[in-house]
């Protein structure tokens, strides 16, 4: 059965089949193993100086404008994020009633609140902690590959998703040796046919709300909102009990169960707060979460956090990091703010909050009503755990909420590796999350940074950025012992995938994820599987939200056997019984490999992960790793635009994302990275503002524009600054805001009011990056050289990560001597060894035995470039642009849509990118010299 697959594997013939079947089956627990030693590497805090909070220079009023305040926009219109990530700067708009917030957080927590209040702590009855509005279809936060939004359908019985603790089969943590002596106990079969699986659907319509109100009605009046006891505290929500559409009986049942345990929980929380000893915290764990004991690292992290000590927590995928903030959030008096990189992740975390812990979420693409609804809940103390994206920290309005009235006890940075530019998932907006900023803006004392995948270098940076004492690093092995890891070389991946799925052990699995690189590939592979009678669906960010959430839902309820997905599917996916993960393409880093294989076997049972390895995919991915690089020349021109003389200090400046990206041939995300670096680098040159669409077209419907302008000073300014186009007034919002010395939000608020009164309507276009210059660089050339160097180091780090992944796979299929327990295509021991080595290495340099497979020269390269330049003499190329085309990399100025048809597209993927750049440079010099 495996012959074809193994024919391609230079090492083996029937290996996978025999190896896998030789290993313990899923019916057996993973064998006990010695507990991985917890070690606390001591990052050297001196290696990078801590950044002190920089006093922000007061913006100097400019001729046409004043420093911009950050007032709230109360009535900005709902805008679809697809068109605009946060048009009104109200990026942090939560749907208190949206699909997001509603579901997961509709919980009964009144008693818990009572306890907190009885202790004079800050908490508030959960009166109607539900979301009033039906769920809108939400777009994700800005993210590379957004994942799913859960469906807006009624939730299944919570009993189905959360069995009472005593009925729950004992779980075996992959890294635990203290639990079941695995080999001795036969594992219970994974339950089939559970309609919900472990997928708890969100509460869209506020089921359970009535129950909450009943609870509140029962509550003695002395239990006041903690918020109401504070100056400026919010009012209790009125009429929220009318907001729900239906009450799901099953969820009422869940609430009843929760309510029944109220008093017990309250007492236990109280005791744990007084004395957070192991015993007391364990009681809380048993009572609220239904687990018998803490897993490795959890107790220590929780005790640290409860004691107010900032901590870095590195635990493997599925090890239970969320518990390390959930449990403290019950004990700590103030809010727990969780920063998460993906909307799907936030949604997932939100719905997993225990019944006693009310949660909320702030995401872009939510309407003003939703946003303010959540603010109301926050101010009323009805949210204890708030999930936000890092982009929120750009929003002054958001920061203001906490500054005066809402104490934050803990900030959790989930997927903290995103802070580091040396991480595989580096996100510019995470760069801003420095301890100095959090302290200065939010008065935060305690930070919990969590990740499953961080190299020593990445950890170092997290520790530095968040100023966490090096002694407060809690780290266990990043290896999951219950995963069998196999790799085979493949010359025909589709055929080999089919063979794999039709052979043991995959043939018997009912829950498998196949990871592809590209969306089209995902659809193609999925179709092929379906054509071959395999129940599969594809999942990628190109699909509509609704479709994606449906696929996840079906998968989680075991109605789909195989999901063929891009990287968009996975992070945060906590389906416990995924039995197999197949990589149809090489992961881009070992971190990605760990994250994706980490979706399997989260119930602790033996699971299988197979990688189909082929060098063509490697070349393609390696080429794509060069998409973000910038030449110093382009950087310099871009900086000139940012600091152009027309951009007055202290005024709102902006540039449209799309056209600027095309003009400099720099990707939008990279433009943002540069801006962020200008804000948080050694010198603070600018202050980044939320993104807006800056070009506004006005259509007047009733009164004449002039008459209206006579009565309205803002309209007068708008008319002064407008151009007439096709009978409509077109103006740049920042210009008007600067002229009026108000924020852009305030401009939109006013327009919105006029729109509601029927006077006008308006259209927005040109999504733009907005900023305010605080300081002009003394030497633009040096700054440009430094930024280019930094970006190139980031690019190189990415490439090293891919090379490390390639080296691992290449070693497994070609170099492994199979002396350490590897056999056939199963390479668990050697892969684990390499992973441990990789994560403990200091500088991320490749191993000594690694040698890049890319060619360093090519006979025809120079002449081909010459022909290419001659035949495309109409276009203006840079050496990088030529090299990108030769490598098949789409860029803003030379998109694949146009250039993929070119004869030379992808032709030199196997030649090292810098070599192609150098050749292009030499040819361009000759070409220009000839005056062609
Ligand atoms: N002490 C415990 N005992 C038993 N189960 C636990 C314990 N702590 C957490 N879990 C369960 O482990 C599962 C994984 O937890 P969680 O989602 O927090 O993992 P994670 O570390 O965040 O993983 P990832 O990095 O992959 O997102 C959850 O279903 C959770 O309920």
From TrEMBL:
Report the record's Gene Ontology biological process terms. cellular response to water deprivation; double-strand break repair via homologous recombination
Annotated Helicase ATP-binding domain residues: 302-472
- EC numbers for this chain: 5.6.2.4
Q: Which UniProt keywords apply?
A: ATP-binding, DNA-binding, Helicase, Hydrolase, Isomerase, Nucleotide-binding, Nucleus
Q: A single Gene Ontology molecular function, please?
A: 3'-5' DNA helicase activity
Q: Where is the composition biased (Low complexity)?
A: 17-28, 61-80
Task: Give TM segment ranges.
Answer: none
- Lineage, top-rank taxon, reads Eukaryota
Top enzyme category? isomerase
Q: Where is the composition biased (Pro residues)?
A: 153-167
Q: Which residues form the Helicase C-terminal domain?
A: 493-663
**Regions of compositional bias (Basic residues) in chain numbering:** 48-57, 208-227
Protein name (record):
DNA 3'-5' helicase
What are the leading ranks of the lineage?
Answer: Eukaryota, Viridiplantae, Streptophyta, Embryophyta, Tracheophyta
């Amino acid at each position: 059965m495996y012959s074809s697959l193994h024919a391609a594997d230079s090492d083996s013939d029937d290996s996978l089949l025999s190896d896998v079947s030789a290993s313990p089956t899923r019916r057996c627990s993973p064998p006990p193993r010695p507990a991985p030693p917890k070690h606390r590497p001591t990052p050297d805090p001196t290696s990078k100086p801590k950044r002190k909070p920089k006093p922000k220079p007061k913006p100097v009023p400019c001729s046409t404008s004043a420093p911009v305040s950050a007032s709230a926009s109360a009535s900005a219109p709902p805008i679809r994020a697809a068109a605009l990530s946060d048009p009104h700067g109200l990026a942090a708009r939560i749907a208190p009633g949206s699909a997001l917030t509603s579901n997961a957080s509709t919980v009964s927590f009144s008693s818990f609140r009572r306890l907190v209040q009885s202790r004079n702590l800050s908490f508030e009855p959960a009166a109607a902690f539900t979301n009033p509005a039906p769920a809108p279809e939400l777009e994700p936060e800005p993210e590379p590959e957004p994942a799913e939004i859960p469906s807006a359908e009624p939730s299944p019985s919570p009993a189905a998703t959360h069995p009472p603790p005593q009925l729950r089969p004992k779980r075996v943590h992959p890294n635990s040796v203290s639990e079941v002596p695995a080999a001795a106990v036969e594992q219970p079969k994974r339950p089939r046919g559970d309609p919900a699986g472990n997928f708890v659907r969100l509460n869209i319509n506020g089921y359970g709300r009535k129950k909450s109100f009943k609870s509140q009605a029962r509550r003695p009046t002395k239990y006041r909102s903690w918020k109401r006891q504070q100056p400026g505290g919010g009012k209790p929500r009125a009429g929220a009990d009318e907001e729900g559409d239906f009450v799901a009986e099953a969820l009422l049942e869940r609430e009843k169960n929760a309510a029944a345990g109220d008093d017990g929980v309250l007492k236990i929380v109280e005791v744990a707060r007084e004395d957070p000893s192991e015993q007391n915290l364990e009681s809380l764990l048993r009572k609220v979460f239904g687990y018998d004991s803490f897993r490795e690292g959890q107790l220590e992290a929780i005790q640290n956090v409860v004691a107010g000590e900032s901590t870095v927590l590195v635990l493997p995928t599925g090890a239970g990091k969320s518990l390390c903030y959930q449990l403290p959030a019950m004990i700590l008096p103030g809010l727990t703010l969780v920063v998460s990189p993906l909307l799907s992740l936030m949604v997932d975390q939100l719905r997993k909050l225990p019944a006693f812990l009310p949660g909320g979420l702030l995401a872009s693409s939510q309407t003003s009503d939703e946003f303010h609804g959540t603010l109301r809940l926050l101010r009323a103390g009805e949210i204890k755990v708030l999930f936000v994206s890092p982009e929120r920290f750009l929003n002054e309005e958001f920061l203001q909420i906490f500054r005066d009235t809402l104490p934050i006890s803990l900030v959790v940075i989930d997927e903290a590796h995103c802070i580091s530019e040396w991480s595989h998932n580096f996100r510019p907006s995470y760069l801003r999350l420095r301890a100095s900023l959090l302290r200065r803006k939010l008065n935060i004392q305690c930070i919990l940074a969590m990740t499953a995948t961080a190299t020593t270098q990445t950890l170092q940076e997290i520790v530095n950025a968040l100023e966490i004492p090096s002694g407060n690093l809690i780290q266990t092995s990043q290896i999951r012992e219950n995963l069998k890891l196999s790799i085979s070389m493949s010359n025909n991946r589709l055929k080999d995938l089919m063979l794999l799925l039709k052979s043991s052990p995959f043939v018997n699995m009912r829950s498998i994820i196949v990871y592809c690189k590209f969306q089209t590939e995902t659809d193609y592979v999925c179709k092929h599987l379906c054509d071959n009678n395999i129940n599969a669906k594809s999942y990628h960010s190109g699909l509509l939200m609704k479709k994606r959430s449906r696929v996840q839902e079906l998968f989680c309820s075991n109605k789909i056997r195989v999901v063929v997905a891009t990287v968009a599917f996975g992070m945060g996916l906590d389906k416990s019984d995924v039995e197999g993960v197949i990589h149809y393409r090489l992961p881009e880093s070992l971190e990605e490999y760990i994250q994706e294989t980490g979706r399997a076997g989260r119930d602790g049972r033996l699971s299988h992960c197979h990688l189909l390895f082929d060098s063509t995919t490697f070349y393609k991915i390696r080429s794509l790793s060069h998409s973000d690089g910038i030449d110093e020349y382009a950087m310099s021109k871009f900086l000139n635009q940012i600091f152009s003389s027309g951009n007055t200090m202290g005024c709102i400046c902006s540039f449209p994302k799309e056209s600027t990206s095309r003009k400099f041939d720099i990707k939008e995300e990279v433009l943002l990275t540069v801006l962020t670096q200008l804000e948080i680098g050694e010198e603070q040159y600018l202050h980044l503002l939320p993104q807006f669409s800056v070009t506004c077209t006005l259509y007047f419907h009733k009164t004449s524009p002039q008459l209206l302008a006579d009565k309205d000073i803002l309209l007068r300014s708008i008319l002064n600054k407008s151009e007439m186009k096709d009978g409509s007034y077109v103006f740049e919002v920042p210009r008007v805001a600067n002229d009026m010395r108000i924020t852009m939000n305030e401009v939109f608020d006013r327009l919105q009011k006029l729109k509601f009164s029927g006077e006008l309507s308006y259209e927005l276009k040109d999504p733009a990056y907005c900023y305010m210059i605080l300081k002009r660089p003394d030497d633009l050339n040096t700054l440009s050289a430094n930024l280019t160097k930094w970006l190139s180091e980031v690019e190189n780090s990415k490439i090293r990560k891919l090379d490390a992944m390639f080296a691992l796979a290449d070693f497994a299929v070609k170099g492994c001597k199979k002396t350490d327990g590897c056999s056939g295509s199963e390479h668990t021991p050697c892969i684990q060894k390499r992973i441990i080595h990789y994560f403990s290495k200091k500088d991320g340099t490749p191993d000594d035995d690694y040698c890049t497979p890319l060619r360093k020269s090519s006979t025809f390269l120079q002449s081909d470039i010459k022909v290419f330049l001659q035949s495309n003499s109409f276009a203006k190329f840079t050496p990088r642009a030529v090299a990108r085309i030769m490598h098949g990399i789409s860029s803003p100025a030379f998109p694949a849509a146009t250039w993929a048809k070119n004869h030379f597209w992808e032709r030199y993927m196997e030649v090292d990118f810098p070599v192609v750049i150098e050749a292009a440079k030499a040819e361009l010099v000759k070409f220009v010299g000839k005056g062609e």
